[in-house]
Amino acid sequence: MNKYLLSIKLILILCLSLQAQTSDIQIKVLTEAENEPLLGATVYFEALEKGAVTDFDGIATFTEIPDGQHQIIISFLGFEALETTIQIPSNTALVFKLKEGGNQLDAVVLQSSRSTRTVRKIPTRIEFIGAEELGEKAIMNPTNISMVLRESTGIQMQQTSLSSGSTNIRIQGLDGRYTQLLRDGFPLYGGFSSGLSILQIPPLDLQQFEIIKGSSSTLYGGGAIAGLVNMVSKTPDEEPALDIMLTQTQALGSTANVFYSKRNEKFGVSLYGSGHYQKAYDPEDDGFSNLPKTTSISFNPKLFYYPSDKTTLWFGLNGTYDDRIGGDITKIESGEEGIHQYTEENNSKRLSSQLVYQTQLDSVSSVEFKNSVSFFDRNLTVPDFNFDGKQTNTFTEITYNTASEKTDWIVGANLYTSNFDENDNAPLQRDQKDVTFGAFANNIYDLSDNWILETGLRADYNTDFGFFPLPRISLLYKNNSGFSSRIGGGLGYKIPDIFTEEAEYINFENVLAIDKSTIDAERSYGVNFDVNYQTRLSDEIGFSINQLFYVTAINDGLLLNSVDNGLFQFENAPDEIFSKGAETNIKFTYKDFRWFLNYALIDTKLNYLPGNPQKPLTAKHNAGSVLMYESEKWRIGYETFYTGKQFLSNGTETTDFVTMGLLVMRNFKLGSVFVNFENFTDRRQSRFSPLVLPPHDNPVFPEIYAPTDGFIFSVGLIIKPFGNEDHD
Fold it and tell me: Is 686 helix (H, G, I), strand (E, B) or coil?
């Protein structure tokens, strides 16, 4: 009997020892197309709640993994996640290959959606520009974000002044005042800054861009009729980051950008500074500047506090000093003399604050409070006229988010105020105060695995223009074969003010104030429909296509018409501004190569004019091609863009043109060097028609429909003291 008991004990001890055996293992992850190691992929043991990230050789290392069967998940942004079962110990090497996904944004969470869902599960169509592409555009134009936006399908950067370079963004053929510019969800730009807004936002401290085309007023209020652009700032990480970027152009433009960030357990900080100097540049030698003499300084410090894992509090300041003077080169450089009298000078100062408090109430609910105060001071001077004023805007908002297995809810309320105060010495007082209260609710609901519905309703009340109900609805269909489609629509509105493109074109001279007793707010409706498909044409070639169709109509559009005594008065249009069109985006990938093709049809009609003419300065046909080669050491890009014929305000048809650009960058361990050939075929408007008409002492400036600066060659250096990946 004792022998049997002893045998049972020995068997139990042996089983227990076998049960406790563990192994140290390595799992290697490769790309399916190129069979190359994948750096940064995540390997996760579900039952053990244990994960690791692959190294430069594509290897994730684990210690003390219990022997037996385990379910693992391998994932990496831009690739299809792999779920599989492995046996430990294994008689063969643990090597797995990930297949590249056609939509590399599936794992990206976008702030403009105000949801924690990924792109693949959001019915609203959101275009995403990530850090990599932002870095390329920052090299091409380190002074402002115009390059980022200009090369997006269906977006036009419309220059309104040769002398100042003022530029407005047009989405789908609609004026810049219909696009809302946000930074980290704050409406900091527009209004009195008008066409200077784009020129005063450097790109180096931005993490990503999120673009919504069509009415987005449910979540963001008035002004987002054509769409919105949300610029998301970089945030500090435990690893310190320091980027120093120095750029010089042949047109005598010099730019320096510095960004630093670092955080510890409780505190974090990010510091950004930018300086730009441009000498007045006249490539035609016609005596007038195509680039104004500019001195611009920007700073943006932020302080972060993390009292717990669930709560973040941060405070930031954004400041800009910008002085630009353009016009007669002789007067700019030597002062007024004889016929050399005309200049346009814009001196502006901006200071804004941002405060955000975010806390997680439980595993599915959170609250966010945000507040900003923005101050803008601008002095515009041309011969015999001065426009001087200050604008103060405030924004306060509180939102509550909650989510369950199938539905997300966002509810919130906000208060927006705007106060423009013109200099008391001005002959026409255009002071304007606006106060708008808003409340909103937005829901995303999974009808099934394939269908997702988003509905929203905002109710805004403006103390002068009344009540605005803004419903919105979107529907998403998706499947596992690479196909998805979205359709959505909503209403929008815009509170009128004097800061329109037409008023800016004449420097706001003799423009009467908004008469709130006779002018109605502009209202809009719009619908978007798009289809997406992604697949692999072969083991090495990836393909994706996105096709968008849209319609937007604006009622009571704000028009600037001449009245008696040389004055200009705002009136509501008697009929619609109607914009419809299509956008096509195609992408091919092959190893280290990417090829993007795009086409935009923009058909914007002014139905309030006889014959419903095409909107002036809006090309009906636009196309582009971008070919990129990217490896660890090199980044080379070649761009070609076609702009079709346009009509001027007098009905004259312009010529079409093609611009080309070439970027070459070499990466090293501690930074990069680059050269950029922007518009190297030197397409500029002066080759087609004059930029300046006589008399010299009181010139006339025709409308701008093509580049004015021509070929710009730049060289630069990016210094990363904490290092890139080792590219030697």
Answer: helix
